[in-house]
Amino acid sequence: MKPLLIITFITLVSASLWGQTTKHHASMPIKCSKCHTCNNPTYLDPCLKVCPDFKRAGVSVRHTADEAPEIIKIDTLANVYQASIFTHKLHAEMSAMSGGCSLCHHHNPPGPILQCSDCHQAKILRDDLTKPGLKGAYHQQCLNCHKSWSHANNCEVCHARQTDAEQTASTADKEAFKGKEHPEVTEPEKKVYQTGFESLPVVTFYHDDHAHRFGYECVDCHKNESCRRCHDTLAKPSEFKEDVHEPCMACHAEAVENKCTVCHAKTEQGRFEHANVGWPLESYHQTLHCQSCHGVDKTFNKLNSNCKSCHKDWTPDNFNHTVTGLRLDEVHASFDCKLCHENRAFSENASCSNCHEGYTYPAQKPGN
Amino acid sequence: MSELSEPRPVNHKFLTPGVIVLLILAANGLIWVFLRFILGIGAVTNLNNEFPWGIWIGIDVAAGVALAAGGFTTSALAHIFHREHFHDIVRPALLTAMLGYTFVALGVFIDLGRYYSIWHMFIYWNGNSVLFEVGVCVLTYVTVLYIEFIPIVTERFVGRVDLPGLWARFNRALDKVLRFLDRNINRAMFFFIIAGVVLSCLHQSSLGTLMMIAGQKIHPLWQSPISPLLFLISAISVGFPMVIMESIISHRSFGLKDEMDVLSSLARFIGPLLGVYLAFKMGDMVIRETFVYLTEFTLESVLWIIEVLIGVIIPLRMFLWDKVLQSKPLIFAASLMVIFGVFLNRFNVFIVAYTPSYMTTKYWPSIGEISVTLGFIAIEVLLYRIFVMIFPVIAQPMRRPQVKTKYAIRGIIR
Amino acid sequence: MGKQSRRDFLKTSGLIGAGLSGLSSKKAHSGVKKIIADDRMGVLVDTTLCIGCRRCEYACKGAHDIDPGRIEQYDDRSVFKEMRRPQYNAYTVVNEYTDPENPDNPSNVKVQCMHCDHPACLSACIVGAFSKEENGAVIWDEGKCIGCRYCMIACPFQIPQFEYHKALEPEIRKCDLCWESRTKDGGVPACVEICPMEALVYGKRYELLQLAHERIEKNPERYLDHVYGENEVGGTSWLYLAAQDFTKLDFPQLSDEPAPGASEKLQHAIFSYFIPPASLFALLGGIMWINRKQNTTEEE
Fold first, then answer.
1. Chain C residues within 8 A of A153 when measuring between CB atoms
2. Closest partner residue to A148 among C72, C105, C208, by Cβ?
3. Which of the two residues, A25 and B359, has the higher pLDDT score?
4. B128 vs C260: CB contact, 8 Å cut-off?
5. Among chain A residues, CA nearest to C190
6. With an 8 Å Cβ cutoff, is C280 touching chain B?
7. How far is the C-alpha of B347 from the C-alpha of B64, rounded, in Å?
């Protein structure tokens, strides 16, 4: 009976999943011709339109920043101003921290990388006003970020005036921009914030712990970074409590709840020590990544000190006492666990007094 | 009528200290008018893109038209309703209206940026424009007033044309023209009289429509949908007080016996008219619930209260009181209040109530604007003085038996 | 005199009646051009896109024979300290407004004639010097204007500007949607052409409305759900999208009634086919005639 039920369940689940995928696509209430140029698109030849009439959710830029062109000269519309030199690679690298390639390449069906001008027309009087024209597409793309951090929008930031012969050589020359890189970003060891919270003003943040010891990738935290964070010419620290707390709370919300003292203190605090949570890491545990026990979630799961909470597959039959750092001698190895570990409380010290008068653990270990 | 009278040119010396003051004001005004034509409107006035209209429109035109309403109200009373009792005051009122409207037209003329194109309004018509209607009516009415004045000219000069020097050769021809007019104009005079009243009703009310298009730029206390009706009724109410005021002043100035019996009976009309005006004004306020603005202490609310209290309510009570009607100082004071009230109303609607959508500075008339306005008023008074000294306008006790006049407007029918 | 004048009275009355009816029919067909074409053009201004580069001010001057000066002068952002209004020598200006909730992202608002569908200036003008053309442009005719400035009184947006400094040939100056120099022949207004951000979109008004609502729908957190000019004063050719309340951007709060509103209706009611004035004339004539008759009888 049981296998039959399982088979039925699996069939139903897969059928419903299959149903969902088909519904997701062919039975959607849009015409095939909206995306496909041919009547019978197949997986191998999807004959997709280059610029469909709607914004696709998925973007398939399948490159890394290293493969991307380094410099692109944008000169399609140059008239009053000269062409603009765009340091593409530099932007592509930095974009990893703020949305990735799709931030600019917001639409790209499988195939070659599209240029802005493939979809955006250079004409001002055009049939489809919903898509910005080419000029608008360029400027909206650049200035959305540049306006907010440079607070300058005079054209000369990106273009040289067509009439200025002197600047022609410097700004319009692609070579001059080659090899331009973002200066190396120095990683802080720790940050000590003096907050406006009067009674507990100091918050200590160990950046290196988060980046290396806890095993996070940079983009795990720095994923919605705007250039402004560093480049804002008029930057001033945010005054809103929510803004300041937001980066920490993404992971620490559960731990903090309403306890300010989790982060705030009167003085600078030391690093995180596992012993402080009541479980000093010893022997094997010391060398493990946090994720080995606490799961791959960004937020580490809280564990109890019971061995079985991690070592789920341990049974009296297969348990090798050696992994705890204490190899039992032959005599002790043959005992039932309960004989030393009263009530199977493995996290507490073993009791020797059941057999040995006057013996205590760990002074007199039953092995080495 | 107990005492017989007839209009005659007044025999009085022209120059008096008052006249000299008026001459100075007039000269000053003319200098500023000259500057306006040489340097442009911007140099002489405080007008700007926020306040396109100032006192030249608000006082010279809007208030000027209202205060010249005596012409059509007395004309209607005397000629259309045939109250012969009032014939003595028709000619002074006609002269006032004629001069008043002439200066309204001149006021508009100097305020126009392209005054030399004023004739465009006769060829490019815009039937939707309230201003077009006002403009055409006012200019037509000025013409009608001149035509109504012709019998007074012919009465004075038929057979007595005596031009000086070289012009003397035209004496005969001019005399012929005058005689022709004298013979024929009376046949059509009734048409001009009615036309004068109709045109007056039209443009007096349309002046009230004029600022409606400014929408919310006009303070709600005055932005009323019945504004044209209020303007018409107030114009009719201010007509007789103007006639009373002028009569008392001119008779005193020329040392003539006053016309209290005529003025008292004329004043009896004013009370009811003011009553109707007040009723509509208050009704409008209650229906539109604009009284809420009176609780705020602003320039607008204070001026509205002054306008209604001093200009309407107090004189209304006074004119309903027999003692006032019999007393020259009181009837004069009450008339002045009505005149002040209507003047202030026009000033309020056109200037005080107007707040530009984007205001940086408040409007205050410049020296030039005030000079021109005062100058025009001075010239008007001077011309009135000159006209009544040349033409038979003011009624004076009869010196000799008189043949019956052909048409009422020429004089008095016994 | 009695008989004679009564006959005259009737004769003249007839003539007047005929004259008046002639007058009224002419008035009904007054020559003011006001075309509201279904496919009239317009401009959609997205104040959230505008970066305040003021290139539109530069291009506008160039397109209207006003010396624009050097283009670099327009980079000066200190002009935003004060609210500026269009002038006789600047038909469009850009102002900047800081959003208290988003102080780093100010809104820039371009100001120019809105080109109303039912323009108050056109209704007010004594000589009909304004006209609304096929593409929606409201333009001024120098050949007709007498300089009365009633259009300035009427305009709810305070747009027509008068050349007060000129003693002769002062003009009423305002944005003409580049009618004379460009759009009459199917061109694009100079400001739209130069706008680098395409914060200005020139197109058919109904398409722009669709576009505006589409943008609001797609980015509800970016835009206020209101297209200024869609219904204000009966609709305008220029339409605005904004992130914050329009009154905070100094847009006047106006009703959906066309700006000429009640004044035009009232005017037409008083003058509908000249019936009310003619009736008043007849009424007064009647009163006069009756009174005269009584009088003559008494005299005789």
1. 51-53
2. C105
3. B359
4. yes
5. A124
6. yes
7. 10
Q: How far apart are CA B209 and CA B203, in angstroms?
A: 9
For chain B, the first-to-last Cα distance in angstroms comes to 8
For A74, A173, A174, B103, C72, the CA distances from A169, given in Å and listed in that order, are 16, 6, 10, 71, 20
Checking DSSP bridges between strand B395-397 and strand B5-7, what pairing results, if any? Answer: antiparallel
Cβ–Cβ < 8 Å for C108, C52 = yes
CA distances from B199 to A208, B108, C30, C277 (A): 92, 18, 20, 8
| Dihedrals phi, psi of A257, to nearest 5 degrees | 45, -105
Give the list of residues 6+ apart from residue B242 with CB closer than 8 angstroms, or none: B67, B68, B69, B70, B93, B96, B335, B339
Q: Is C147 left (phi over 0), alpha (psi -120 to 50) or beta?
A: left
CB C296 within 8 A of CB C272: no
**DSSP symbols for C217-267:** HH-TTTS-S--BTSSGGG-BSEEEE-SS-GGGGT-----SS-TTHHHHHHH
Q: Is residue A353 classed exposed, middle or buried when 0-12, 13-18 and 19+ CB atoms within 10 A define those classes?
A: exposed
Neighbours of chain A (3+ CB pairs under 8 A): C
Taking CA–CA distances from C70, the nearest residue in chain A reads A161
Say if A366 is an interface residue toward chain C (CB within 8 Å). no
- What pLDDT was estimated at residue C31? 61
Please, which residues bridge with residue A191 across strands? A205
Closest chain A residue to the Cα of C207, Cα to Cα: A129
Give the mean pLDDT per block of 10 residues along chain A (368 residues). Answer: 63 52 60 76 75 53 66 63 80 80 79 82 82 87 77 74 55 64 78 82 86 78 73 63 74 77 84 76 74 73 74 77 78 80 77 80 76
- CB contact C267 to B (< 8 Å): yes
Q: Does C18 touch chain B (CB under 8 A)?
A: no
Contact C227, C240 (CB under 8 A): yes
Contact status of A94 with chain C (Cβ, < 8 Å):
no
Phi–psi pair at A188, nearest 5 degrees:
-75, 150
Say yes or no for a CB contact (<8 Å) between B117 and C146.
Answer: yes
Are chains C and B in touch, 3+ Cβ pairs below 8 Å? yes
CATH class of the region A190-272: alpha beta
Domains, chain B, ordered by start? 5-393 (1.20.1630.10)
Phi, psi for A234 (deg, rounded to 5): -115, 25
CA distance C214 to chain B (A): 31
Instruction: Name the β-bridge partners of C131.
Output: C139
**A84: three-class secondary structure by DSSP:** strand
Which domains, from first to last, does chain C contain?
2-29+265-299 (no CATH), 41-118+172-259 (3.30.70.20)
Helix B87-111 to helix B130-157 angle (10° resolution) is 130
Closest CA to C278 of C73, C20, C18, C60: C20
| Interface touch A125/C188, C-beta < 8 Å | yes
pLDDT band at C154 (very low <50, low <70, confident <90, very high): very high
In the prediction, which pLDDT does A62 show? Answer: 56
Pick the residue from chain C with its C-alpha nearest to A147.
C51
**What ipTM was reported for this prediction?**
0.88
CA distance B138 to B132: 10
Q: Say how far apart CA A284 and CA A276 lie, in whole Å.
A: 18
Between chains, do C202 and A153 touch, taking CB under 8 Å as contact? no
CATH of A65-177, one of 3.60.20.10, 3.90.10.10, 3.40.50.10470, 3.30.420.40: 3.90.10.10
Cα separations (Å) of C224 from C94, C108, C209, C219, C244?
Answer: 20, 15, 14, 9, 6
